[in-house]
Amino acid sequence: MIIGVVGTLAAGKTTTIEILHKEGFRTLTLSDFLREKARARRLKTGREALYSLGNELRAKFGPAALMQEALNRMEGHRGDYAIDGLRTPAEIALLRTLPGAIVIGVDAKQELRFSRAKERQERLGREENASTMEEFLAQEERENSADSYRPQLRKVLASADALVRNDGTREQLRVAVLSAVLELRQREKDGTAGERDG
Fold first, then answer.
1. Strand (E) or helix (H) holding 156
2. Taking the domains of the chain in order of start, what are their residue ranges?
């Protein structure tokens, strides 16, 4: 099974990937590819720099360029994969060309996501570029471009096969994610994997 994990800013995508990793999934994160490329160019690796680099690579190599990098790294490897960081409909479309590929969306209340982003910045020193709710909302709006070569998080989230809410504890998220995986595995066995929730 190959799972693409998508969602809004600071909704819990990384935590979802960690949960899946503990369940035996190999994990790939598209933003890690960007960090590698940024370091190779001696660029900064904060959110703003990665956003610009991602847009540059999509403009040069197509809107699914980062997902293609994930496929290249998966080549020759078997087993279950969880891929984080899909941000364009083209990346979702490329993922869906793989047998057994599904998409899980993660979302949470806006205020909670902003709080998590701030906490993450303080805990990890991760450059989030959003010290106020207004900046966070502006950042989120920028992740919802009409340009198919730029992030379109709302469209990507709307394409998910299952949506998991992350408004509670990590354990509640773990239970919700694993329940969604079980349900989607069952749909795959039943031949109804393409039918989406909601």
1. helix 153-158
2. 2-190
Residues 157, 198: Cα–Cα separation, whole Å: 12
* pTM score: 0.88
Local confidence band at 123 (pLDDT 50, 70, 90 cut-offs): confident
Q: In this structure, are residues 80 and 1 in contact, taking their beta carbons and an 8 Å threshold? A: yes
How far is residue 33's CA from residue 65's CA, in Å, rounded to a whole number?
11
Rounded Cα–Cα distance for residues 115 and 119 (Å):
6
Residue tagged 């795959």 (tokens)? 188
- Mean pLDDT score, 74-98: 93
* CATH superfamily to which 2-190 belongs: P-loop containing nucleotide triphosphate hydrolases (3.40.50.300)
Which amino acid, 9?
A: L
Mean pLDDT of the chain: 90
**106's tokens:** 């993660």
What 125-133 contacts at long range (C-beta under 8 Å, 24+ apart), as own/partner pairs, is: 126/46, 126/47, 127/44, 127/45, 127/46, 127/47, 127/48, 128/47, 129/46, 129/47, 129/48
- In tens, the pLDDT along 173-193 reads 999 999 999 999 888 888 765
